[in-house]
Amino acid sequence: MERLGIDEQRGKSIIRTWVGANDFQIPYHDKPVVELVLKFVKALRPYGVVLNGDVVDCTGLSEFNKDPTDTPHLNQEMADSAWLMATLADCKITERWWLGGNHEDRLRRYLWTHAEKFAGVPAVQFPVLFDLDRYGFRWKPYGESLMLGKLMVTHGSQVLKHSGQSGKAHFDRYGTSVLIGHTHRLGIYYRRNVRGVHAGYENGCLCRLDPDWVQHPDWQQGFSVVHVEDNGLFSVQQIPVLNRKVLFYGDA
User: What are φ and ψ of residue 97, in 5° steps?
Assistant: First the structure.
């Protein structure tokens, strides 16, 4: 990756490429779409990857009404997420992060509400239960963030009606450029102030678009590639997945 610029006095900068993806909601992930994204990641060979929350659904731990005849067991989610992490680990990615979302946080809420005596047992904490260490993934719980240069990456907690509005709400909350999941939408909100140009990015989803709990959801499948300079400057390229079968990046 090469940066084009006019400030030659700064010399060569190190540019690291990251892939950010979220809201797979395993086992309700759109497997052909996920496989397409994984093929892309393998070809791109990024420096880092961030799984930015709601990677698994934790359906059986949810307090919401659900079809009792079609509720996946947590073991299935663990197996499918192991496949995802193993595939990414095979891509020889240097930094691998899993940031918890509100769905991963269902495990903590379940323990606190229904099994409080086990709440502090290490074996039932999310990163241990889902075996993140085995695949080289580092963990941050729901609500925490990862900084890619000057870009904050966090799952997010607000959903507004239209694309870009939730990005604005999170920028207003954090006061800095931010990349979120949570909304299942793609969108960008830009803002310029005395500190420069900032943005709030909504990062789409990689789950199926036909859930049984909402009709005709206003969701878009996609993810982002983030280029980060060693001085903190960054560029976010949103990549929509078109008709569940194709994506475009650069001249490919």
Answer: -125, 145
| pLDDT tens, N- to C-terminus, the chain (252 residues) | 555 544 444 567 899 999 999 999 999 999 999 999 999 999 999 999 999 999 999 998 987 766 666 667 899 999 999 999 999 999 999 999 999 999 999 999 999 999 999 999 999 999 999 999 999 999 999 999 999 999 999 999 999 999 999 999 999 999 999 999 999 999 999 999 999 999 999 999 999 999 988 899 999 999 999 999 999 999 999 999 999 999 999 865
Nearest CA to 207 among 185, 224, 238?
Answer: 185
Query: What's at 192, amino acid-wise?
Result: R
Name the residue with tokens 């996609």.
222
What is the distance between the alpha carbons of residues 165 and 188, in angstroms, rounded to a whole number?
A: 8
Tokens 């939408």: give the residue.
185
- Dist. CA 168–CA 164, nearest whole Å: 6
Q: What is d(CA 222, CA 203) in angstroms, rounded to the nearest whole number?
A: 7
Residue 167 parent element (H or E): helix 165-174
Closest by CA position to 70, among listed 57, 89, 88, 51: 57
